[in-house]
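As a warm-up, study this chain.
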Amino acid sequence: MKETIACPACEHEFSLTQRDGGKRRSHPQLSRYFKLIKCAHYHWPESAPQFDREEELRKWLQVKAGYGQVVLRMALTEVSKEAAKMMVQATITSLKHYAIPITREEDGVPTLILVEPLSINYGTLAHNKACELFDKVERTITDITGMDAEQLLANPPPKKQKWRDADASSDRGSEYRSELDGGTGQEAA
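Now compare it with the structure written out below.
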């Protein structure tokens, strides 16, 4: 058996035989995947389902790519699909547990299915399976945003300025007095 493999996405070589703490996947590929999710979240169209956080988008994309497990299946005979979906979503939110409600017909009966995304940690998802999943997610992002991965990665969200980098931490900050502090709101000359 071959002991090393090169990632087809980034050509990073890593060991297939390392166990116990050894990473049997490409870290550069994983970093690119998370950067892609961040860029996709920033450029996400309003016409698509909306997500408050990048993590929620990532999990939704992974389930959409088929990487999830069904945790609940409920026939909707007494309640409407939309009412059941809202109840389940409220329950998920209150429990702080992420799962995606899906409604569809099964054997002629409206059914609610709750799907939980599976973990993508190094010990759970083998490299070749990670490549397949990341490719499916990338295709879904392209289909929804109309931008391919390279376009998204070339247009990342703007970096947030840390408060320490602001003028307030420099000597200039001491020369500025706001109108509330009896100043004019202007910098001292």
